[in-house]
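Posting for a labmate who doesn't have an account.
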Amino acid sequence: MSTQLHELLAIMARLRGEGGCPWDREQTFASIAPHAIEEAYEVADAAERGDMAHLRDELGDLLFQVVFHAQMASEAGHFDFDAVAAAIAEKLIRRHPHVFGGGAQISSADQSKVWEDIKAQERGAGHAPGAVSHLDDVPRGLPALMRAYKLSKRAARTGFDFEASGAAADKVAEELAEVRAAAVDATAPAAAAALFEEVGDLLFAAANLARKLGIDAEAALRAANGKFERRFRGMEGLAAARGVAFDSLGLNAQEALWQEMKRSE
């Protein structure tokens, strides 16, 4: 283990120890978990922007979350950081038989299939037939769009899937029509509940279509969010440069600015 990692583990132990940081000492697995999620997203953001200096710092923050959980687990007698490292090392070796088992090299697509096959075997190990679902271990804490993608991908491995992307697109159109129908009169509580459900079905169908097209739905939506933000900020800038408050413009004028921003990209 490197000197730097030893130092990090010692710092964490000191923060949690007698006379350490009051905030760190009062944390639990549940209270720290949201911070780990936040740090993971900040890592993804830095990577997408290609900001290596920021990425280094965010990876450090994410590593600190791992060390924090491991320290609390060690205090409770569950496991320590070495056990965490050993477990992931063993898993990587087990799930890469073509690398560590002396087999022939395979393609990236084949490796993904091998990985999923081994995961499926691990889920079923020691359980009676039918006692384990193919959807087991898809984390409930994932963002909803990402979880929809993973659920449909897992279901597709059993054969429960559209034969072609066109059929998945038709499903999106079908769900959109149902949203339109439900939205005609959504003032009553029952109608509002039906509309809520139909919108959820539409979003799930869209995520499934993205998977069928080989598109990461979560990444695609992040990119769309970024594009919308970039264009909207540009619209506000154009309006300000012309001495006009953006929110004072009518919809037609705002739409004209939107089209202007699109043409400028």
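Reply:
Got it, the structure tokens are right above this. The mean pLDDT is 90.
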